[in-house]
Design brief:
- By secondary structure, the protein is an alpha/beta fold.
- The chain is built from eleven helices and twelve strands.
- The strands form two sheets. The protein has a seven-stranded parallel sheet. Strands 2-1-3-4-5 form a five-stranded parallel sheet.
- Helix 1 runs parallel beside helix 11 and helix 4 packs across helix 6.
- The protein binds NADPH dihydro-nicotinamide-adenine-dinucleotide phosphate (NDP).
- The site of NADPH dihydro-nicotinamide-adenine-dinucleotide phosphate (NDP) has 34 residues, from helix 4, helix 6 and strand 7.
- The site of NADPH dihydro-nicotinamide-adenine-dinucleotide phosphate has 34 residues, from helix 4, helix 6 and strand 7.
Length: 314
C-alpha cells in the first residue's frame, strides 16, 4: 500500500524525535523541496500559511495543521469545506500567559510610567499603584492562554471572572459569563485580559460601552488579537479616561507600525507582538512538536485536537 504523505512547511527546526515518529507513520516531504507528485499525493500539510497555490498543488489534502494558535490570517473563502483545519492552540500558551502577566503588572504597578520619569531625573510620586490581591479580573477567552492567566491570577489572590462560549467549571474561575454577555464579565472589573481569537463573532467585541463597563482606572491587557477591540472606540475612551491603561501585544494592521497612533498614547503600554517569546528557539521547537503530535494522532487514527469550526470565520 502506498504510504500517506505529510508535507512540512516549518523551516529547518524540526525536533528529531518528532520527525522520527512522524516518519514511522508516513512519507515526509519538505515544502519547497517536494516533487510535484509528492505534493499531489499529500494528505496533510503543516504550515503557518495556506495559499490558493498550495491548495492547487495539493488537491488531495485532508488536513492542514497550522503552526500558530490564531487562524484569522487564513483566506477562509479559498479553503474547501471538507478540508479540516487545525489550529496550534496551546503550543505557546505558557509564554503568552507570562507576557500577559508582565503587561498586567507593568500597568498596575505603573512600572513604565515611573521608569520614564526616573530616567529623566524626575523622582516625584504623583500616581498610586494597584494591589492585585483582592481585585476583580475578567479573563476573556478560556483557551490554554486564558486558563493559564486565570491560574496565575488566582495564585496572586485575584477574584477571577471567565468569559467564553462553553461554560467552564475549572477551579480558577470564580464566576463564568457566557458569550455574548461581555459587559457582564467586564462590569466594575479592575482588570481584564483578552485572550480571544479574532473571528467573525469577536471582531470589535470590545467597544466604547464595554471599556466603560470597567473601573475608570482599570487596566485592560490584550494578548489575543487587536481586532477584538474597536480601534476608534479605544482611542476615544483612552483620551477621555487618562487613568485607564490599555496594555497590548497585538494590533490591527498587518504592518503594526501603522498602529503607532495607539502605541503613542500616554495611557498605553505596548510590545510589538512578542508574547509568544518571539525568536526563542525553545518556543518554536515546542510549537512544531505540538503541531506534529496532533498529526501523528491523526495518522494513528486517534482523532485531531483543535479542529477549527469554519463557521466562526466564513
Ligand atoms: P483557543 O483558540 O484554544 O481558545 C480560544 C478561547 O476563546 C476559547 O475559550 C473559546 O471559547 C473563546 N472564544 C472563541 N470565540 C468566542 C466568542 N465568540 N465568545 C467568547 N469566547 C470565545 O486559544 P488560545 O488560548 O491558545 O489562544 C487564543 C488566541 O490568542 C489565539 O486565537 C491567538 O489569536 C492569540 N495568540 C496570540 C499570541 C501573541 O503572540 N500575542 C500567541 C498565541 C496566540 P469556547 O471554547 O467556549 O468557544
Amino acid at each position: 500500500m502506498e504510504r500517506r504523505v505529510v508535507v512540512l512547511n516549518v523551516g529547518d527546526f524540526i525536533p528529531e524525535e518528532a520527525y522520527a515518529e512522524l516518519f514511522n507513520h508516513a512519507e515526509v516531504a519538505f515544502y519547497g523541496r517536494a516533487s510535484p507528485e509528492e505534493l499531489r499525493r499529500a494528505e496533510v500539510l503543516v504550515t503557518f500559511r495556506l495559499t490558493r497555490e498550495d491548495l492547487q498543488m495539493m488537491p488531495n489534502l485532508k488536513v492542514v495543521q497550522i503552526l500558530s494558535a490564531g487562524v484569522d490570517h487564513l483566506d477562509w473563502s479559498s479553503i474547501p469545506e471538507d478540508l479540516i483545519v487545525c489550529s496550534n492552540a496551546g503550543s505557546n500558551a505558557i509564554p503568552v500567559a507570562e507576557h500577559a502577566l508582565a503587561l498586567l503588572l507593568a500597568a498596575a504597578k505603573r512600572v513604565t510610567y515611573y521608569d520614564a520619569r526616573c530616567r529623566s531625573g524626575d523622582f516625584t510620586r504623583d500616581r498610586t499603584t494597584k494591589i492585585l490581591h483582592g481585585s476583580e479580573i475578567a479573563v476573556l477567552g478560556l483557551g490554554p492562554i486564558g486558563m493559564r492567566v486565570a491560574e496565575l491570577a488566582k495564585a496572586l489572590g485575584m477574584r477571577v471572572r471567565g468569559f467564553a462560549r462553553r461554560p467552564r467549571g475549572e477551579p480558577f474561575i470564580d464566576e463564568f459569563f457566557a458569550y455574548p454577555d461581555v459587559r457582564g464579565a467586564l462590569n466594575g472589573a479592575d482588570l481584564a485580559v483578552l485572550a480571544l481569537p479574532l473571528n467573525k463573532h469577536t471582531k470589535g467585541l470590545i467597544g466604547y460601552g464595554e471599556l466603560g463597563a470597567m473601573k475608570r482606572d482599570g487596566v485592560m491587557v490584550n494578548v489575543g488579537r487587536g481586532g477584538v477591540v474597536s480601534k476608534p472606540d479605544l482611542i476615544r475612551f483612552l483620551r477621555e479616561n487618562p487613568e485607564f491603561t490599555y496594555a497590548t501585544d497585538v494590533f490591527w494592521s498587518p504592518e503594526i507600525a501603522q498602529d503607532s497612533d495607539v502605541a503613542a498614547l500616554p495611557n498605553v503600554i505596548a510590545t510589538p507582538w512578542i508574547a509568544g517569546a518571539f525568536g526563542h528557539p525553545r518556543v518554536y521547537v515546542d510549537m512544531v512538536r505540538h503541531a506534529v503530535s496532533n498529526v501523528i494522532g491523526y495518522l494513528r487514527g486517534e482523532g485531531l485536537r483543535n479542529v477549527v469550526d469554519r463557521s466562526d470565520y466564513v
